[in-house]
Write a structure and sequence with these properties.
208 residues, alpha+beta, 7-stranded antiparallel beta sheet, 3-stranded antiparallel beta sheet, globular
């Protein structure tokens, strides 16, 4: 499963272009009119992608995960994905949202580490964690500010083993993010104030 934004997506206004490669990235569209039909169609894609590893016993949990993923899609997300890293009913989620930055908003370098994206420029990477009782879930958030536009790319908290499986592909996805203005020109995020341009920064996400 590979998701590529269609030509002209968001034409005439601000838009994000991106490519998710490497398999396992399933686009969660907004405003699906017929959820049952969508779940059935995506379930067929999952089954075909798993090939010989598919078992009919997977049909129900796969459908349930697809339906739950669509229902949990953030309303403000420009792009949202369900990640299926292995041929098993095991998923996590990623999304990208953007909008006008709040008045006076400044990326806080103390809250994370600078992150350099090929197309979008420099932002701040933060790891997140959620105490889920027996396990601590791990996630990743990357924030960019280009002019007065704030872009938020998020790998939602998940179990550490699953995070390790998808962190690399999430990083590769963020490297393809492109912010395009209404005039068709690309916008690039600025360096956070007070951060030296010559400083060496991490350009990869943690894998564990």
């Amino acid at each position: 499963m590979t998701a590529v934004m269609p030509d002209g997506w968001g034409a005439g206004g601000w838009r994000l272009d991106a490519t998710a490669e490497g398999g396992g990235w399933l686009l969660l569209p907004a405003g699906v009119a017929d959820v049952d039909a969508w779940v059935a169609e995506q379930g067929d894609l999952v089954r075909d992608g798993w090939g010989e590893r598919w078992d009919d016993a997977h049909a129900r949990p796969v459908a349930d995960l697809l339906r739950a993923g669509l229902a949990a899609r953030p309303e403000d997300a420009a792009l949202a994905f369900q990640l299926w890293p292995v041929p098993a009913p095991l998923v996590t989620h990623a999304f990208v949202a953007f909008g006008t930055a709040p008045d006076g908003f400044v990326l806080d370098t103390a809250s994370g580490v600078p992150y350099d994206a090929d197309r979008l420029g420099v932002g701040i990477q933060r790891t997140s964690s959620v105490d889920a009782g027996d396990v601590e879930l791990v996630g990743l958030d990357i924030l960019f500010v280009a002019g007065d536009v704030l872009v938020h790319a998020s790998l939602q908290p998940t179990i550490p083993e699953l995070f390790a499986l998808v962190a690399g592909s999430f990083h590769a996805f963020v490297q393809t993010l492109t912010l395009v203005g209404p005039d068709g020109d690309e916008r690039v995020a600025s360096l956070p104030p007070g951060v030296a341009a010559e400083e060496r920064w991490p350009d990869t996400v943690p894998s564990s």
